[in-house]
């Protein structure tokens, strides 16, 4: 049996606190949120976790996505848009949080 990822891109306003990507794969709920600005911080990850709190931790895959403006910054400076503290917070989260940019979703 083939399982298909079904997704929905929600184009709400910045700071709306909602998900930009929502779907499912097998028994997992997949949720994504895009972040703009110059960097993604541990505070962004913590806020994302608060939004995730209504979902089952064991069956949720969360994706925090750096938007296009982050990739331009990354290409220019060879720096990572996810701060070290953001990476540490995502790694220590009770949720399975993936940090990526929009080209690699």
Radius of gyration: 14 Å
Number of strands: 5
The CATH class designation is Alpha Beta
Cα separation of the termini: 24 Å
Strand order of the largest sheet: 1-2-3-4-5
Overall CATH architecture: 3-Layer(aba) Sandwich
Give the CA-based shape: globular
Protein name: 8190_t:CDS:1
Organism: Paraglomus occultum
Architecture overview:
- The chain has helices at residues 42-52, 68-77, 84-92, and strands at residues 6-9, 21-25, 28-35, 60-66, 96-101.
- It has a single domain, classed as Trna Endonuclease, Chain: A, domain 1, CATH 3.40.1350.10.
- The chain is of the alpha/beta class and 105 residues long.
- Helix 1 packs parallel to helix 3 (84-92).
- It starts with 5 loop residues before the first strand and ends with a strand.
- Helix content is 29%, strand content 29%.
- Helix 1 (42-52) links the parallel strand 3 (28-35) and strand 4 (60-66).
- A 5-stranded mixed sheet has the order 1-2-3-4-5.
- The chain is built from 3 helices and 5 strands.
- The longest helix has 11 residues, at 42-52.
- The mean pLDDT is 79.
- This is 8190_t:CDS:1.
- It comes from Paraglomus occultum.
